[in-house]
Design a protein that fits this description.
By secondary structure, the chain is mainly alpha-helical. Helices cover 57% and strands 0% of the residues. Helix 1 packs antiparallel against helix 2, helix 3 runs antiparallel to helix 4 and helix 3 packs antiparallel against helix 5. The radius of gyration is 16 Å and the shape is elongated.
């Protein structure tokens, strides 16, 4: 079924606003919160992804095969795709604010960067669907399928985020 209606329906990643420890990160003073354990960041992210999954699960899912969709089917699916990309974008933004783990910080930053790229591809795909542009939709689908964010998150210990 592809990333858009498979992996994305499970959420890409998440976190919680204001830092995983309830504090802040960055801000006007230029200070950063102390590093938190990776397990805490993962737990916060998976909790947000679970909520996002529930939101996505409540949406009426369009019935079509992305690999063989018609322009009319894509136009019909566009509102769903836009809504899913908005939910996933919130999860990714939450992950960026979840705090800096004491370990594997570089790997987490890479996963978040790839998750932002995935959201951009989701938005591109939703726009292509709204225009009924089958070729652009399929190019975006290929980009989504190739995105490594889900694998990277799994390697960090996430069990909900990015696991479609």
């Amino acid at each position: 079924m592809g990333v858009t209606l498979g992996l994305v329906a499970a959420g890409v990643c998440g976190g919680c606003g204001g830092g995983a420890d309830g504090g802040t990160t960055g801000g006007a003073t230029g200070t950063t919160a102390a590093a938190v354990p990776l397990a805490r960041v993962v737990a916060a992210g998976d909790a947000i992804c679970a909520k996002g999954n529930q939101q996505i699960g409540r949406l009426p899912t369009p019935a079509f095969d992305p690999a063989h969709a018609t322009g009319a089917q894509l136009r019909s699916a566009a509102p769903y795709l836009h809504r899913v990309s908005t939910i996933v974008a919130g999860e990714v933004d939450g992950a960026a604010a979840a705090g800096q783990p004491a370990e594997k910080a570089t790997e987490l930053r890479a996963a978040i960067k790839d998750a932002h790229a995935l959201v951009a591809a989701m938005e591109w795909q939703a726009d292509a669907a709204a225009q009924g542009d089958v070729a652009a939709f399929q190019r975006a689908e290929a980009e989504l399928d190739a995105n490594p964010a889900g694998r990277e998150l799994a390697a960090l210990g996430f069990t909900v985020c990015g696991q479609g």
